[in-house]
Amino acid sequence: MFKHISKGQAARLVMVPGWAFDWRPLARSSPPLGGVAYTGENPREFSADLRRWLGPKDDQTISLLGWSMGAYAVADFAVRHPAMVNRLILVSARSRYGPQDIDPVRAFLRRNRKAFLGKFYRDCFSTDEGDSYRWFRSTLLHEYLDQMNLERLNRELDWLSTARLDIDRLRTCRDLVLVHGTADRIAPPEEAQQLAQALPHAKKVWMKDAGHLPFLRSDFAEQVYGEPTCN
Predict the structure, then answer these.
(1) Residue 179 is inside which H or E element, if any?
(2) Strand, helix or coil for residue 198
(3) Which of 219, 220, 215 is nearest to 68 (CA)?
(4) Cα separation, 222 vs 219, whole angstroms
(5) If residue 142 lies in a helix (H) or strand (E), which one and from where to where?
(6) Using CB atoms within 10 A as the burial measure, which of 34, 75, 140, 201 is most buried?
(7) pTM recorded for the entire structure
(8) Residue-range domain boundaries for the chain
(9) Across the chain, which distance is largest between two alpha carbons, in Å?
């Protein structure tokens, strides 16, 4: 359920990918973030899987990075087990997805799954991210179009329809980082601004002209792991 994605680096960063993706875009980050990525296909099971993976005698703290859908999974774990988490990084996150967001996606998937996914993946990259999109198109796109089936996609949508960021409990996180691309067409930057205002103690990282996968930018690690600031 967990895959080491950078050999020789400490595995204390656990990353969870977004809807209709797997761990491989996270492994593409430059420089590599290190750590491990969650490979499970049911986000409802993340917390239980992580507890089993860590083991009952593991008393070291971890860092968590949740991207898009993965943000809900890691945030839920962090607020339930605050003593186990020393840093929480939410990437391309929204406070929630409502029926007005999810119902049209279900309808488009029923009508033409591959066509909808093709447009969704293209929309994940901004107009300034041509190189990143060409990498994605040449390596992962066709495999995703074949393997991201309706059962998996709808199961994740079911979970997304009920997932929420618990703002009150997130205010107690010791080291919280919010990362968002200013050209994100999947999770609107306006909503990210509202989330940032609700969590004034968090470090905010706005990736200029980045889309929904800002960790592909070469300065992502530097921006995230710089000294925290509150504003």
Answers:
(1) strand 176-181
(2) helix
(3) 215
(4) 5
(5) helix 142-147
(6) 75
(7) 0.93
(8) 2-97+164-225
(9) 49
